[in-house]
Structure formats: structure tokens, C-alpha cells
Amino acid sequence: MNVAQLQEEILRLKKEKDICILAHSYQAREICEIADFTGDSYKLSVDAAKVSNQTILMCGVRFMAETCKLLSPEKTVLLAQPLAGCAMADQMDRQLISQVKEKYPDYTVVAYVNTTADLKTICDVCVTSSSAVQIVRKIPNNNILFIPDCNLGSYVAQQCPEKNIKLLNGGCPIHAAVTPDEVRKAKALYPGAELLVHPECVPEVCAMADYIGSTSGIMNYAMKSEKKEFIIGTEISIAEHLQYECPDKEFHFLSMKLICPNMKATTLADVYNCLTGKGGEEILLSEETVTAARRCIDEMIRLGE
Ligand code: 13P
Ligand code: SF4
Prior knowledge:
Blueprint: H1 3-16, E1 19-24, H2 29-32, E2 37-39, H3 41-50, E3 55-59, H4 62-71, E4 76-79, H5 94-103, E5 108-112, H6 117-120, E6 125-127, H7 132-138, E7 143-147, H8 150-159, E8 164-167, H9 180-189, E9 194-197, H10 203-206, E10 211-212, H11 215-224, E11 229-233, H12 236-245, E12 250-253, H13 261-264, H14 268-275, E13 281-282, H15 287-304
Parallel strand pairs: 1-2, 1-3, 3-4, 5-6, 5-7, 7-8, 9-10, 9-11, 11-12
Antiparallel strand pairs: 4-13
The chain binds 1,3-dihydroxyacetonephosphate (13P) and iron/sulfur cluster.
């Protein structure tokens, strides 16, 4: 079977089984093409809550599938590739944050959505990279404990100077690995290009950018911009997708470190195997976890509106 035949078979199976396929924008092009919804983690979590399908198949990483399950506990939620985790989400657990909370009892705990469902059970509100600033601004408490990403947290702190934001030493090892030196090299190679970066990059890199935003934010900015050339400071798949969307523009990778092995783990064959019941993993969360973790997701949606 070639790629087109496999895609056709996947489309037939998902229709027959009434399955909604979600693909994060970091997924491979051939996966995005067969998805019902693509986008950043915030958009996908909202899309997943609205669909009428009984089964949702997530092509992305585990915390995204868990978020879908939290929003739609009555549905069957499948993760296409069970090994697809998130290096940042795995950095902090409930035990660690419970101890930190004891030290900061008056703080509102804001969790980036890139956290496990188990950790979300003890947090107050979730944010995504596209909603973090807006949500933190709306929180009545000025004392904020922002976990786990200190780079996204620094960006939020810069945008919300009225808040007292406490950060921990976590973050995305992929985005955080990009150095200002690499930025200088890329700018020298492509002097006419605008630099668009994800806020998971370190503050020194963000400070050199023309635009800072989520994966969808970066894509929308580049598509609408009158500029013709861009350096993309997030997972390299975004530059590839943009090149297809805007053939008259030029997109360059900021760094070859920006390859997330977890996001690359899902293949079209995984999607097919999941649909035929031979692969994937059903996300199962206890009722207590769903009830407790759901509070901070609901709060994210309420404050994000
Ligand atoms: P978005 O919130 O922009 O989708 O990012 C998710 C992610 O994992 C970025 O590394
Ligand atoms: Fe997690 Fe970073 Fe990969 Fe995003 S790019 S899924 S934050 S490890």
C-alpha cells in the first residue's frame, strides 16, 4: 500500500467507525491531511469537546489525549502512538508540586497544559501557550506559581508585570536548547527574514524575535503577513506545513535541534493500526482524576473566552 492508499483506507475506516481524528500541528503532513481537526493544543482541546463522535483518536502526545479524555470522559479516547509522551510533562509530578504548594499556600497554581492529568488534579487553572497571558491577567490573585515551563512563565511574567510570578526549573528541552548564537547565525544567513518563535524558547532567544506565539499563532502570523521570508523557531514541522500553505513565501528552520522525537513518533501506519484495533492505547482515567483535573481545564476554557 502506498501513502495515498493508506490515507484512503484510514478515511474509510474513520467514517465507518465514526471516529474523529485530531492531529497537533507538529504531526507529519500525511497525518494532518487525514485529520478532522488540526491545530495547537488549546484549539484541539476545544474542538474535541464539541464533536459528536463517540471515539476520538489523538495524533499527538499523551497529555493531549488525556486533556481530551478530561473534556469528554464519556467518550473513548485513543492515543495513536502509546510511546508518544512529552519530555516537559514528565518533569514534574503531583508529589513534587504538593511539596512546593506547601511553601506557597497563597499562590494560584497555573499549570501549562503540557502536564499529566494526575498533576492537574492539584492545580487551579490550566493554560496553553496561546492563552497563557490572557488567562494569567484575568486571575484575581496576583501571586502565581507557574509550572512547569520557566520559559513560557518568564514570557507571561514579562507580559503581566502586575503579577508576582514564581517559576520552577522546568521546560521543553527541545525549544530550550536553541541558543542566541544560533539565532545570530540564522539571521546572518537570511537577513531579510522575520524570526517567529514559540515562548518555550529561552528569554534571550525570544528577545531577538519579531513575533512570539503558539504553534497556531506562528502559522497565522506567517500566513497573514505581507513579508515573504521567515525563520521558524519551533518544531521544524511548522516550517514544512507553512511552505505548503504559502508556496510564494520562504520558510527556514531556526535550528536542527527543534525536532521533537515524541511528536515525530506517530506514523500513518500507527493511525491505521489504531483504527483496526491492532495498535494505539485507550486513555483510561479514574473518576476522581477526571473530576479533580477537569476543574482546571474548565477554568482555562472559562477564562480563555
Ligand atoms: P502549542 O500549545 O503551541 O500547541 O504547543 C504544544 C507543544 O507541545 C509545544 O512544544
Ligand atoms: Fe513536549 Fe517539547 Fe515535544 Fe512540545 S516540543 S511535545 S513541549 S517535548
